[in-house]
Amino acid sequence: MKRKIIIAFSVCSLIFILSGLFIITTIEKSTAKLDILIRLHRVEILREQLLIRIKRAQSDLNLWNTRHARSMDAVVTDVRTMDSALDACFNCHHGESVMRRLTNLRNQNEQYKNALSRVFTLRANRSRMRAEENVAFMAGADLIAEVGAITNMTDRNLQERTRSTLKEIARTKTVISLLLAAVPLIALGLFGVFLRGFTKPVGALLIATRRLKAGELSYRIEGLKDEFGEVAASFNDMAFTLREHYMKMQWAEQAIVLGEMAGGLAHEINNPLAGIKAAMEVLSGDPTVSEENKNLPSQVIEQVRRIEVLLKSLLNFARPPKPQFMSVDLNEVLDAAISLAKKHPLFLSNSSLSIKIVQDFAARLPQTKADPFQLQQVFLNLLLNAADAMPAGGAITVRTSYSARSPLLSISILDTGKGLGGDVIDKIFLPFFTTKPKGTGLGLALAKRLVEQHGGGILAVNNPAGGASFVVTLPLLEGDGGTGT
Length: 485
Fold this sequence. Notes:
The chain has 485 residues and is α+β, with helices and mostly antiparallel strands. The protein has helices at residues 2-62, 72-92, 96-121, 126-213, 226-284, 295-318, 330-342, 372-388, 422-427, 443-453; strands at residues 326-328, 355-360, 368-370, 394-402, 408-414, 457-462, 468-475. It folds into 3 domains: 2-191, Up-down Bundle (Four Helix Bundle (Hemerythrin (Met), subunit A)); 234-319, Methane Monooxygenase Hydroxylase, Chain G, domain 1 (Up-down Bundle), CATH 1.20.58; 324-475, 2-Layer Sandwich (Heat Shock Protein 90), CATH 3.30.565.10. The chain is built from 10 helices and 7 strands. The radius of gyration is 57 Å and the shape is rod-shaped.
């Protein structure tokens, strides 16, 4: 999310900077063009003033020696104004063709000035004076025609240039107006996209929080990315952990209640059973009992023994013996459990349906602090359950592993049976839950309780290739690093 904020801020800043630069550049260009137009109009005014001065000088020439003639100072002033106007034209124009024409114009102006000078200074020779007047008049007429032609030409060009510049300024004004209107809309659009990208994940987190508060511990957040994805993953982990703790607390409460009930119930049932068993043993030895009834006491005694085993399991679950901790090697404990399991009838079949045990132990496995006899009981129970899940035969793999990045040892017992149903996995460690016709439902519950007394955990999963796995994790012996796999 931080990267998106930086990108959005950078894009908005870039848009504003580019827009500002465009506006500033456009204004500078338009100002420069207007400045050029103003200068050109000033030049045009100077040309018109030059034309006016030339016509006035020409008029003075026509009125010379009449009662309407002006003073010589006024004539000289007009001539000087012609020079200054022409010099101003040279200061503004730099094109080669224009410079040639202006140079020619200056030459004509010089000739006209010389002609006027001769006319105004000659006094003696009257015929020569008339000739000079004609020359001056013709030079003035040519100069007026040339200046008029230049003025007309530049006036047309200036008008065309003025129209073009004004159109360009109008277009620029339109573009700037559109830009000023579009930039806030673009910024608003980016803000809306960013706001939606922020509020949508927050809304999803809020919904998840409310559902979690309502007790839906199985609810998970999906589809979020970036930092919100990390928050969602943490939330999902938290919900999973809460659900696990809730299940453990629920199981612990059930175990406490069952333990209290089982303890009292076992004592209440055990005493009458002992009397029944003793009576049946006496009755079985009575010679007066007929042959056909002699089997009845032995059957009753067998059923009483089964009830005694169940009560013993119930008492062990309700009040498991306190573990006697010592430093143990799990590979050795598993070897002992496997040796006992192989003596069970489930592993003694010589048919093609036999069950094989594959040992995949990690070398140099670190030791753990545990009660070896209780762990042996746990592993034996898991091995017998795995064998019972493969009535058609198969293989059981017993694997130990360790990672230097984890403080736990892992023991996996994998079978090649049919696996566990989804509803079975959730209930398999609950007391009195069993899928066996003659099972008590206390074996795995007791195994879970013994493992948890060791500070470890146990879980059941289905294998991708088929069958089920029971994974037991136990803490390392404090201070033992190990180099296992």
